[in-house]
Amino acid sequence: MSCLLLGGGTRGGFLSDALLQLFSIPVFLAALSRLLDAPLSKERRWALVFCAAIVAVPLIQLIPLPPAIWMHLPGREVVAEAFERLGRPPSWMSISMAPEATWLAGLSLLPPIAIFLSTLTLGWRDRRLMSFALIAFGVISVFLGLIQLAQGPSSSLRFFEFTNPEDAVGFFANRNHFSALLYSAILLTAAVLVPQIKTLSSGLKRRESFDASSAMGAIAVGVSLIVLIVGVAIARSRAGIILTLAALLASLAIDRDRRHLVDKFTLPRFLAAIVVLAVILLGQSALSRLLDRFDADPLADARLIFAGNTIAAAKSVTPVGAGLGSFPSIYPTFEKPADLLTGVYANHAHNDLLELWLETGFIGPLLLIAFLIWLVRKAIGAWAAPNPALLPVDRTLVRASIFIILLLLGHSLVDYPLRASAMAGLLAFACGLLIDPPIVSAAATAPIANSDHDRHRKNMMAPLKGTRPERMSFSSPS
After folding, report:
1. In sequence order, what are the beta bridge partners of 87?
2. From CA 118, how far away is CA 29, in angstroms rounded?
3. Distance between CA 144 and CA 230 in Å, rounded?
4. Do the beta carbons of residue 101 and residue 323 sit within 8 Å?
């Protein structure tokens, strides 16, 4: 939770970022130690290799190189010319053209990697509890956003100096990143709600006794979903609203087989009812403010300018890149006078794929392609061949995580949500959910194998009641 509380900024060097990175060091060491003490599957070994490759990028970019090497790297002609005009001999320099920014970018990798490795050490029950905690944090953030709106631009509950003063931002500096948290939480909420609806509707279809506790749990999750949708609306992020609609549509695909739902209580109708209630709660004035955001986009033309200049800058330093975090230093050298817009400062490219190309050369896009290949394989397995040993809620959480990753990557094509440590940490948690714990005891599979309705319901509610339907073991399999 400290990642969500402290990691809402979009610029490196904040005290909150430093504290977060400091807190993540013991978590990283403890998780890594626990992973290495356990038998590693092939997938876990590759996951560790991939993390090491990501960390290696800024470290390699910071290695000092003699002038005979760095002067021949693409895009360094301007630096060499500067030494010549000063009448000084070239000194040793790194691949990164902004070493301090690369150091900060490298340190920002600590929290998400610590979260990813820690998630790998958790059993399914603990992963469910973490998902519930994320949903609760999203709901709390919405109420914080409502207070921010009520207090106005001068609210003391806006925790960053450079922010969106007219909109709800929660614990973030940017309304777009706040919306990214909310649509991610919406998918997690849907992942919890779908099995609950199936359990209730299956009981009604079998004409079994009405389970009040399960019904109350479903109502509580449904109310949380309404609150999160309202939160996206008050944040007034265009990309957030569009991706929230995509998240709600994706919720229909979280459960592959919806035949168990009774005819008059289908998931699409339930979600539609939730959306209608959310719109009613917003009211006319809030909806009017929301629609005003779609009238004009001051960054619409700027994004095209940013993209064109970023591509030109990336080509000039390919294949090695300019160094992680170097965009604010390199981009202005490619701006033309006609590109300068009053009141618009290009701190990022608003397209993380292009920015990744500029800062890392070929290595960043290659790592991204490898990640996407792995993600596609996990998605195929999650729907085509789901693990029968998992509880339904665990299967839906895995599928929701895939959608969370896809939406965040899609969002990164028009913004930079993953530049905030909070959202990078949430992405890392979603990636961790896609990799099974080392070994789950046979006791966890009994409720699924027996297909007993009552036992299935009790295991569904186990995380809420504090019981433990399965036990994770790190011993090697017999």
Report:
1. none
2. 10
3. 12
4. yes
Q: DSSP character for 331? A: G
Contacts of 77 (CB under 8 A, 6+ apart): none
Q: Which value, to the nearest 10 degrees, does the dihedral of the CA atoms of residues 246, 248, 250, 255 take?
A: 180
Chunk the chain into consecutive blocks of 10 residues (it has 478) and report each block's average pLDDT, rounded to whole numbers: 82 78 94 89 93 96 93 88 86 93 93 96 94 96 94 89 85 92 95 83 61 78 91 88 90 68 54 73 60 60 84 94 93 79 71 95 96 95 82 92 97 92 95 83 40 45 45 35
Q: Where are the alpha helices (DSSP H) in 152-211?
A: 175-205
pLDDT tens by residue, 359-385: 999 999 999 999 999 999 999 999 887
Q: Are 436 and 442 in contact (CB under 8 A)?
A: no
Segment 210-254, tens digit of pLDDT:
567 777 888 898 899 999 998 998 888 888 889 999 998 888 888
Question: Cα separation of 469 and 52, whole Å?
Answer: 34
Cα separation values, 201 from 140, 215, 218, 390, 444, Å: 30, 10, 11, 20, 24
This prediction has a pTM of 0.85
Residue burial 334-362, b: 16+ Cβ < 10 Å; e: rest: beeeebeeeeeebebbbbbbbbbbbbbbe
Bridge partner residues of 65 (DSSP): 93
Residues in the chain: 478
DSSP state of 473: E
Please, are residues 110 and 24 in contact by the beta-carbon 8 Å criterion? yes
Tokens of 426: 């949430």
Q: Which of 117, 127, 119, 122 is nearest to 36 (CA)?
A: 117
Amino acid in the structure at residue 268: P
Rounded distance, CA 277 to CA 274, Å?
Answer: 5
pLDDT at 23: 92
At residue 440, the 3 state secondary structure works out as strand
Q: Of the candidates 387, 384, 375, 367, which has an alpha carbon nearest to the alpha carbon of residue 437?
A: 387
Cα separation values, 400 from 190, 221, 396, Å: 8, 15, 6
Upper half-sphere CA count for residue 334 (Cβ side, 13 Å): 22
DSSP per-residue letters across 245-307: HHHHHHHTTSSS--TTS-TTS-HHHHHHHHHHHHHHHHHHHHHHHHHHTTT--TTHHHHHHHH
